[in-house]
Amino acid sequence: MLRFVLNRFLAMILTLWVIATLTFLLMHAIPGSPFNNLNGKVLSDAAVKNLEAHYHIDQPLPIQYFIYLKSIATFTYGPSIKQPAQTVNDLLGRGFPVSFELGMWALVVAVLTGVLLGIFAALKHNGLIDYLAMTLAVLGISIPNFVLATLLIQEFAVNLHLLPAGTWQGLSYMIMPIIALATGPMAIIARLIRSSMLEVLTQDYIRTAQAKGLPPFIIVMKHALKNALLPVVTVLGTLAASILTGTFVIEKIFAIPGMGKYFVDSINSRDYPVIMGTTMFYSALLILMLFLVDLAYGWLDPRIKQSKEGSK
Amino acid sequence: MKKPLGKLLEVKNLHVSFQTHGGEVHAVRGVDFDIEQGETLAIVGESGCGKSVTSLAVMGLIPKPHGKIVAGSIQFKGTEISTLSAKRMRRIQGSDLSMIFQDPMTALNPTLTIGSQLTEGIIYQKKLSRQAAHQKAIEMLELVGLSNAEQRMKQYPHQFSGGMRQRIVIAMALICKPSLIIADEPTTALDVTIQAQILELFDQIQEETNVSMIMITHDLGVVAKTADRVAVMYAGKIVEMGDKRDIFYHAKHPYTQALLNAIVRLDLPSDTLKPIEGAPPDLFAPPQGCSFCDRCPFAMEVCRHVQPPTTAVDDHHTADCWLLDKRADAALAKG
Amino acid sequence: MTPSKGMQEKITAQNVPNAWFHLLDRKKTVQQSLVRPSVSYWSDAWIQLKKNKLAMLGLGFLILLGIAALFGPILSPYSVTAQHLTLQNLAPSPSHWFGTDELGRDVFTRTWYGARISLFVGVVAALVDLLIGVAYGGISGYIGGKTDLVMMRIIEILYGLPYLLVVILLMVVMGPSLLTIIVALTVTGWTGMARIVRGQVLQLKNYEFVTASKSFGSKPWRIVRKNLIPNTMGPIIVQMTLTVPSAIFSEAFLSFLGLGVQAPFASWGVMANDGLSALLAGYWWRLFFPALFISLTMFAFNILGDGLQDALDPKLRR
After folding, report:
1. Distance CA A184, CA A113 (A)
2. What distance in Å separates the CA atoms of residue B75 and residue A97, rounded to the nearest whole number?
3. pLDDT tens-digit series, residues B218-232
4. Residues in chain B with pLDDT values less than 70
5. Cβ-Cβ contacts under 8 Å, C316 against chain B
6. Of B76, B11, B34, nearest to B316 (Cα)?
7. What is the pLDDT of residues B140-187, one digit of tens each?
8. Measured between CB atoms, which of B95, B106, B158 is closest to A204?
C-alpha cells in the first residue's frame, strides 16, 4: 500500500512540474511586456526597464525558469504586477476561502443529491421516478451553469424577491450560487450512479444476496452501492475541476469576491505572478484531488490495491 | 436407501414465462416433481431447457417484472410459496431454502470480506450476535475444508482460487442449516479435479446434515455421482423421471437415450459417441406436439400433433413419450 | 395417411387416431431450423434507435438546426453585423422574430449565425477526437508492452492537467478567437477517446478472430482497419456524441467570460453574455434566445447520445 501511495505521489509531482513548465513557456510566448500599459498610465522606457529588472523579466529565460521553479517550490510569488501593494499570496488568502466555500458546498450538494437521485432512479427502473430523475438529469447537463444562474436570479431575486442576487454575506447569499454550480455535476453523478447501479444489480453476487433472504434495503446499501460508487469516484476529480472552473463564471454573475474574479482579471491584464500563482495553486489542488480519488478507489475496491501493488 | 420422511417440496404443473422484446418466452411449461427429506434430485438437460428457471422459481428469485410464474403450485413443507409475499418469502430464503450458484468467481461480492458475506445471512435470519455468527462461520469454513478459517474470514474473494470460492459459497448456503439446497451447476465452472472434490464434499455434507438437494446440471457424470432420482428436462418440460438406475439403465425417452449416447466414455469405441443432431425448439412458439419430435429418430405422425402424456413405466419411473403407447409397437416393428 | 383437413373434433391425448402411429420418413421432414431474420449490427442498431422516440426527436432537432444554421443567415433580410441605431432593443415582433439587440442587430439572424459557430466547434472537436484519439489509443493498445506504458503515462499527465485552465492559458497566449478555442479544445480533449479505444483494442486483440487473421499473415494495419476499428465503432460514436455538447458548452462558457469569440461576430456565449446585462433592463429576449438554443442543442446531443449508447451497446439490449 505504501509503495502505491509513494508511486502516485511521484506521479503527482511530475504532473505539477509539467504544468509549471507549460505555464512558464506559454506566459513567455505572449508578445509584449506587461508594463507597457500599467493601470492606464504609459510608462517611460527606463521605468519599464526598472520594473522588468525587479520582476527578473530582463534575465535570460533559463534563469527566469529557475527563479520561477524556486518560487513555486517555496510558494512565494511576490507582489501582483498590477496591484503592487498586494502579493499573490494575499490575493489567494483573501479570494480562495470564498471560492473554496462555494466549490466545496457545490461538490457536497452535487454528490449527495446525485447519488440519491441515481439510486432511486435505478431502483424504480423504468418507473415514474426514473423518468422524472433522468429528465431532470438531462436538463441539468444541458443547461449551462451561467444560464441557470441568470434564470435563478431572474426568478428568485428579481421577480419573487426571495433571495439576494449577489455578493457573499451568509447562507441566503449562498443558496443560488451553490444550486447553479452543483446542478451540472449532480446530473452527471445521477446518470452515472443509475447506470452503474443497474449494471451492478444484474450481477451474480446480488442474486446470491437475494438468495440469503436479505431485504432490498440491505442489498442496495451493503452489496450494490459500494460497487456502484466506483465509477463516480473515478470522475470525482474531473467533476471537481469543472466545479472549480464553474466558480469563475458563477463568481462573475453573482459578484462573489472569490479567486475566479482575480484570475479572469489577471488574464486580461497579463498579471504574470497572479496567473502563475493561481494556475499552480489550482493545479496542485486538482492533482491532490485526483490523488485522493486514487486512494479512495483503492479503499473501495480491494482488487485494485493488490493489482497495483503487484504490478509495480 | 434413506428413509422417506414425507414430501419436503412438491412442485405441480409449474409454468414460467418471460416477457422479452421478441415476445413471451415459455421457459417452463408444466413441470411436476417432488423431493423427500434427505434426498437428492438431479435435474438434467441442455442449456436453455428451463432447469435453472425452475430452480429460481422454487427459490422465489424469478427476476421481476419480466419473469412470472404463470400457473402451478410450489409447496415447501406444506406451505404454498409461489404466492408468498416477498417479505414472507425472505424468511424462508437463505434460512430453510438456500441456493448455490454456478460461477463462484462472480457469486461473491468482490468488495466485501468473506467473513462479512458469510455472517450477514445468519445475523439477519437468526438474529445471532456478531460474535456468535463469526464463530458459526468459522465452523462452516472448517466443515467445507478450508484451513486457517480465522484468518480467511478477513480476506476478499479475489484472494481465493475458484475451488476455494465454491467451498465458501457452499458454506454460505449451509450456515443457517437449511432443509433444502438448490445447487445450480455447482461444478461447471471448476477444473475437473476440483469438481470431484466438491462433489465429494456434497456427499459428506449430506451424510452429516441429511439436507435435501436439487442438483441442476447438464453433466451426467455429476448425476451419476450425486443423485438419488433424476428428472430429464427438455424444452421446458420434464420428459423422463425416475431413480438413477432407471434413467441410466432403462431410459425410455429417446432424448434421455440420446443424452446417454452423447457421453464420452473411454471404455467404449469412439464411434458409439453420438451427438444429438439439431437444436431445441423455439420457446417463443413452443411446438404443438412433442417438443423433441424434430430431433427424434423414432418420431411418428402423432408426435407432430399431440403432446405425449406422462406414462408410468414402473413404480417411480415415468416418461412423456408416445413410444410407450401400445399402438407404437407395430410402427417400430415396421420401421 | 395424413388426417383430413376437415376434421373438426379436437384431438387430445385420449382420442389420437391409430393411423398416426407410424414412423416419419426422416429425409422428408428436413430440419426446420429456427432461422429468425438475421439483421446486421448496424441495421439492428438503427432499428433500436428508431424505436427511441426521444433520441429521434433530438436527431430531428439537430438536423433542423443544421439547416437553419446553413440557410438562416442567408435567407434572413438582415445582416449579422450591420447596426441600425434606430432599431435598438426592439421586442420580438413580426419583422424581428427574436427582437433586436442594443446595436439594432436582428437577434434571429444572429442566433442562426451563432448556431454555425457552435455546430462548427462541436463538429471540429469531435473530428479531432476521432483522428487523434482513435489513432493514439489504437496504436497504444495494439502495440502494447513498453510503448503502451509510456503512451498511457503521457495520457495520465495530460488527464491531470486542469482542462479549462489550459484552455484559458492558451487564450492568453494566442488571443481570444475561434481558432484559439478550437486549438484549446483539441489539446486535451482526445485523451478520453484514446483511453476508450485502447481499452477496446486490448480486449479485442485477444479474441480469436484477430488471432486467426494474424495467423493468415495479415499486416498489423490491416488487422486494425478490418477487425479492430469496425468492432470499436459503437463506443467511438457514443464518445463523439458526448464530445460535441461539451465542446459547445466550452465555447459558450469561454465566450461568456469574454475569452472566446469576439465582437462583432455572434456566438451563443457572446450573445448570452451581452444579454445578461440587458436582462436587468428588461430586454429578456436578448438572453432568452441564445440561452434557449444552447440548452436545446446540448439537450438534443445528450438524448441522441443516450439513444445511440442504448442502440450500439449489445450489453444493454434486452
Report:
1. 11
2. 66
3. 888 888 888 999 999
4. 1-6, 264-273, 334-335
5. none
6. B34
7. 998 888 888 899 999 999 889 888 999 999 999 989 889 999 999 888
8. B106
Which residues 210-229 of chain B have a CB within 8 Å of chain C? none
Q: Cβ(C249)–Cβ(C123) under 8 Å?
A: no
The whole-angstrom separation of Cα A232 and Cα C208 is: 33
Are A290 and C168 inside 8 Å of each other by CB?
A: no
Cis link prior to B65 (omega < 30° from 0)? yes
Q: Which domains does chain A have, with CATH numbers?
A: 91-270 (1.10.3720.10)
Residue C52 placed within a domain? no
What is the H or E stretch that residue C308 is in? helix C285-312
Q: How many CB pairs under 8 A join B and C?
A: 62
In a domain, C51, yes or no: no
Contact predicate C301/C241, CB 8 Å: yes
Identify the band that residue A42 occupies on the pLDDT scale cut at 50, 70 and 90.
low
Question: Is the Cβ pair C21, B334 closer than 8 Å?
Answer: no
The minimum CA-CA distance between B16 and chain C, rounded to whole Å, is: 18
Angle (nearest 5°) at CA C246 between C257 and C271: 35
Which is nearest to A267 in space by CA: A256, A254, A277, A281?
A277
Which pLDDT belongs to residue A234? 76
CA–CA dist C120, C111 (Å, integer): 14
Quick one: which of A264, A275, A293, A267 has its CA closest to A19? A275
What residues form DSSP beta bridges with B35? B9
Over 80: is that where the pLDDT of A281 sits? yes
The kind and range of the H/E element at B181 are strand B180-184
> C110: domain CATH number?
1.10.3720.10
A211–B95: do the CB atoms touch at under 8 Å?
Answer: no
Domain count, chain C: 1
N-term to C-term CA, chain A:
11
Q: What are chain B's domains? A: 9-96+176-334 (3.40.50.300)
pLDDT per residue over A163-198, tens digit each? 887 777 777 888 889 999 999 899 989 888 888 888
Question: Across the interface, do C23 and B322 touch by the CB < 8 Å criterion?
Answer: no
Cβ atoms of residues B198 and B169 within 8 Å: no
In a domain, C49, yes or no: no
Query: Given B297, B300, B330, which is nearest C20 (Cβ)?
Result: B300
**Alpha-carbon distance values, A41 to A56, A222, C172 (Å):** 21, 66, 22
Grid cell digits, residue A163: 433571495
Which residues partner with B68 through β-bridges? B17
Instruction: Spell out, as residue ranges, where chain C has pLDDT lower than 70.
Output: 1-11, 13, 25-41, 80-81, 89, 96, 160-165, 206-210, 212-214, 216-218, 220-221, 223-231, 263, 313-318
Domain range for residue C208?
A: 92-312
Contact pairs from chain A to chain B, CB under 8 Å: 79
Answer whether residue C145 is part of any domain.
Answer: yes
* B252 contacts B283 by C-beta, under 8 angstroms: no
Contacts from B240-249 at CB under 8 Å and sequence distance 24+? B240/B317, B240/B318, B240/B319, B240/B320, B240/B321, B241/B33, B241/B317, B241/B318, B241/B319, B242/B313, B242/B316, B242/B317, B242/B318, B242/B319, B243/B316, B243/B317, B244/B42, B246/B313, B246/B314, B246/B316, B246/B317, B247/B223, B248/B220, B248/B224
Cis amide linkage into residue C264, ω under 30° from 0: yes
Report d(CA A1, CA B21) in Å as an integer.
48
Nearest to B301 among C22, C26, C318 (CB): C22
Read off the DSSP letter of residue C4: P
Phi and psi, residue B306, nearest 5°:
-130, 135
**Which grid coordinates belong to C171?**
487564450
